[in-house]
């Protein structure tokens, strides 16, 4: 839990007593590769801090999966609707064996009243999640597929290295075949012109 303690301190929860109280509510969980943490129509019961591993959020339709986001070690996982109990519209899938700390949402209400800094922390986490969504939206507005791929390489190198081609293509809004061609061109120093 040292990683969690450090992240909480870096995100503004400086009072040791407040951090210790919050950390005491987290429970260590081991998540299996391929496990679904959340499915559409169900509300999230917890938020998670990822100590190690990789997860993604995706939706499906028309026989395709559309990857919306990735989260890896050192990041918080705040499923859509988690703070107001709304049913999810996405799947949350574990991509690697993952060690996480789960914070049951039902235990947070009393803590928010008890330690005001915790409310500030969660506002900060929600803002970070909104910014990540905005960055992805901006990436998808880049007309050139090659530039989108380079942008992802420069901003989420850890994800590029660990995610399979189909999921990455889905995230970039490309076909796996097109992504394969882009990767070959990039490996040989070529640049796509579209």
Concise summary:
The chain is an alpha+beta fold and 194 residues long.
Fill in the keyword field for this structure.
194 residues; 45% helix; four-stranded antiparallel β-sheet; alpha+beta
What's the number of helices?
8
Mean pLDDT across the residues is 89
Low-confidence stretches are none
Q: Radius of gyration in whole Å, from Cα?
A: 18 Å
Proportion of helical residues: 40-55%
Strand content: 15-25%
Largest sheet: 4 strands, antiparallel
Our measurement of the CA-to-CA distance between the termini, rounded to an integer number of angstroms, reads 46 Å
H/E order of the elements? HHEEEEEEEEHHHHHH
Classify the secondary structure makeup into a structural class. Answer: alpha+beta
Backbone shape? elongated
Main sheet: which strands, in order across? 1-8-3-6
Number of strands: 8
Question: What does this protein look like?
Answer:
With 194 residues, this protein is an alpha+beta fold. It contains eight helices and eight strands. The chain has helices at residues 2-10, 16-25, 108-114, 116-140, 145-155, 157-162, 165-172, 176-187; strands spanning 27-31, 36-38, 46-52, 54-61, 64-72, 76-77, 91-94, 98-104. The strands form two sheets. Strands 1-8-3-6 form a four-stranded antiparallel sheet, with no helix packed on it. Strands 2-7-4-5 form a four-stranded antiparallel sheet. Strand 4 and strand 5 form a beta hairpin. Helix 1 (2-10) crosses helix 2, helix 3 (108-114) packs across helix 4 (116-140) and helix 7 crosses helix 8. The longest helix is centred in the middle third of the chain and has 25 residues, at 116-140. The chain starts with a helix and ends in a 7-residue tail after the last helix. The model has no long low-confidence stretch (mean pLDDT 89).
């Amino acid at each position: 839990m040292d990683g969690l303690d450090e992240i909480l301190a870096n995100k503004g929860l400086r009072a040791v007593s407040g951090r210790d109280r919050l950390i005491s509510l987290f429970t260590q969980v081991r998540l299996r590769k391929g496990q679904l943490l959340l499915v559409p129509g169900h509300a999230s019961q917890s938020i998670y801090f990822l100590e190690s591993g990789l997860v993604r959020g995706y939706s499906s339709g028309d026989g395709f999966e559309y990857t919306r986001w990735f989260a890896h070690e050192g990041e918080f996982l705040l499923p859509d609707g988690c703070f107001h109990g709304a049913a999810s519209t996405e799947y949350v899938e574990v991509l690697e064996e993952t060690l996480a700390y789960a914070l049951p949402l039902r235990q947070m209400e009393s803590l928010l009243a008890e330690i005001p800094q915790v409310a500030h922390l969660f506002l900060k986490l929600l803002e970070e999640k909104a910014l990540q969504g905005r960055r992805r939206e901006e990436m998808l507005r880049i007309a050139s597929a090659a530039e989108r791929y380079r942008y992802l390489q420069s901003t989420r190198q850890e994800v590029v290295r660990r995610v399979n081609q189909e999921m990455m293509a889905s995230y970039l809004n490309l076909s796996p075949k097109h992504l394969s061609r882009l990767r070959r061109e990039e490996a040989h120093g070529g640049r796509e012109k579209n």
